[in-house]
Amino acid sequence: MKYLPNHENRTINNSRFKFYIPIKIKFLIGHFIAIFWLTFSIFISKAWVTSLGQIISMPAAIVIIMGIAYIPGYLISFMVGSLLLDKQPKFAVELPQSPVTILIAAWNEEKNIGATLHQLAKQDYDGDIKIILINNNSSDNTVQTALQTADELGLSMQIIEEQRAGKNYALNTGLTFVDTEFMITLDADTLLHPSAIRYIISRILSAPEDVCAVAGAILVRNSRQNIWTKIQEWDYFLAIASVKRLQGMFQQTLVAQGAFSLYKTKVIQEIGGWDDVIGEDIVLTWKFMKKGYRVFFEPLSVAFTSVPTSFRGFCIQRSRWARGMIEGLKTVKPWQQPRIYGKYLTGVNFVLPYVDAIYTFCWLPGLILALFGVYWIAGPMTILVLPVTILSYLILYRYQKSIFRKLDLKVRKNNIGFILFILIYQIIMSPISIFGYTQELLKLKRIWR
User: Fold this and answer.
1) Residue 211 C-beta-side C-alpha neighbours within 13 Å
2) How confident is the model at residue 4 (pLDDT cuts 50, 70, 90)?
3) H-helix or E-strand containing 379?
4) Pairing of strands 211-220, 182-186
5) CA triplet 63, 69, 71: central angle to 5 degrees?
6) Which family does it belong to (predicted)?
7) pLDDT of 144 over the 80 cut
8) How far apart are CA 69 and CA 78, in angstroms?
9) Which residues, 6+ apart, have CB-to-CB distance to 135 below 8 Å?
10) How far apart are CA 278 and CA 235, in angstroms?
11) What's the pLDDT at 84?
12) Cβ atoms 232, 317 nearer than 8 A
């Protein structure tokens, strides 16, 4: 067994060569498809640009239409074209036995920690699993519940205390107690599929040496609770998963999320652990990439997390994510990334605030005008992005269903959530993201939960 060019980790049978497409070619094909779509969009939107330009000036019209149609269409087309070429490399190591340490930072998780530990006890992993629970100023019975559950299940667990409030402090303290080559961060309310640890360690052991982390696949645990969780189920299942898969395909997954990811312990120690920022996992991942390391994504390694059940909680979480993205851009600029794929993917985040601003301050008012028959901004032309978006979701839906079959899971029926996700999700998300960007730019007080 050896690695193919560009370190695409696939097994070669010397007696019969298997055709493959290098990631460099996939990258170029994806952009060719995106450029074709952009050219087509510009050609058929000439009348729209001209008519809007007569009302607000031509430069302003171009700026608005770029943010509404051209850039989103380009990005979505690139994703669709790339995902059509994606094929996850096979595992070189299918039954790993490497010892691993699980870090769980907990603050008032009495209600959740028991279920999380029960799922750890169900893992079909043959190696030793050590659990370190970092109690971060809990005022409930988190520690007592964890100790009792671990004792009942026969789990190897260590409790340590961290008085300073903040997930970064808790994780950095826990890091000093890790003595295994690999470590996993896991949120206290996140449930692992029984094969999650086996698959995620198989992926890193099957990868080249410069892969320092693998992000797991996060799905929604409480999707049936109310309409907000139903909408978020599709966000995680389709939108977030498609972006993760695209980034993982180019070996530059931009967020090895703290909720569930695997890391090489020595690399985290090398870069000094987690920074004191609200998006500590984003900044950590980008610092990996700046050092020349690669970050993979493993779709078979699935975890289920609890998502916000209220609109206020959803706004706090997503504005925090947007703020974390700005922190990442401030810490590591796209042009500082050593790999072309990292430059491009982080560079996409560089233009997202512009797209969100145009969507919030131009498209939404344009949508209101369209309700009264005024189609200056929102009209038939803006619908052009919709078919490409739906196509990308259909591609990923088929892929996700195949993943679920391998894991003996079933996709829940959630038609109402899907319809609302398609129709209103971006209407909600862009203003929330703008709020998050503004919080970071103005250095407003951090809201953790």
Assistant:
1) 28
2) very low
3) none
4) unpaired
5) 75
6) Belongs to the glycosyltransferase 2 family.
7) yes
8) 14
9) 106, 107, 142, 143, 159, 160, 161, 162
10) 22
11) 87
12) no
Residue 195 token pair: 């094969």
| Token code pair at residue 249 | 């395909």
**Which residues sit opposite 216 in a β-bridge?**
298
How far is it, in rounded angstroms, from Cα 396 to Cα 245?
Answer: 9
For the record, the structure tokens of 13 come out as 């049978």
How is 67-79 classified by DSSP, letter by letter? IIIIHHHHHHHHH
Largest CA distance in the chain: 73
Please report where in the chains the tokens 């970064």 appear, as a residue. Answer: 168
Q: Which two tokens stand for residue 443?
A: 């250095």
Task: Report the pLDDT value the prediction gives residue 439, as an integer from 0 to 100.
Answer: 92
Q: Does the global pTM surpass 0.85?
A: yes
Burial class (CB in 10 A: 0-12, 13-18, 19+), 328: buried
What is the chain's alpha carbon radius of gyration, rounded to the nearest angstrom?
22
Reading across the β-sheet that carries 182-186, which strands appear in turn? 156-161, 129-135, 100-106, 182-186, 260-264, 211-220, 294-305, 190-192
Distant-in-sequence, close-in-space partners of 174: CB < 8 Å, separation ≥ 6: 103, 105, 132, 134, 160, 162
User: Contact at 8 Å (CB) between 362 and 67?
Assistant: yes
Residue 131 and residue 104 in contact, taking contact as beta carbons nearer than 8 Å: yes
Contact 440, 279 (CB under 8 A): no
Nearest to 298 by CA among 411, 193, 448: 193
* DSSP symbol at 16: B
Contacts (Cβ under 8 Å, ≥6 apart) of 46:
none
* Alpha-carbon dihedral 84, 90, 95, 100, rounded to 10 degrees: -60
Cα–Cα distance between 377 and 65 in angstroms, integer?
8
Q: Reduce the secondary structure of 268-287 to three states and give it as a string.
A: HHHCCCCCCCCCHHHHHHHH
Count of alpha carbons within 13 angstroms of residue 394, beta-carbon side: 6
Return the structure tokens found at 325.
Answer: 């993205």
Residues 6+ apart with CB under 8 A from 196: 123, 216, 260, 301, 302, 303
90 and 203 in contact (C-beta within 8 Å)?
Answer: no
- Distance in Å from the first CA to the final CA of the chain: 47
Cβ proximity of 211 and 262 under 8 Å = no
Cβ neighbours for 343, distance < 8 A, ≥ 6 positions apart: 334, 335, 337
- The predicted-structure confidence for 240-299, as pLDDT tens digits, reads as follows 998 999 999 999 999 999 999 999 999 999 999 999 998 999 999 999 999 999 999 999
Q: How far is CA 433 from the centre of its chain?
A: 15
Q: Give the closest residue to 6 by CA, choosing from 339, 300, 241, 343.
A: 339
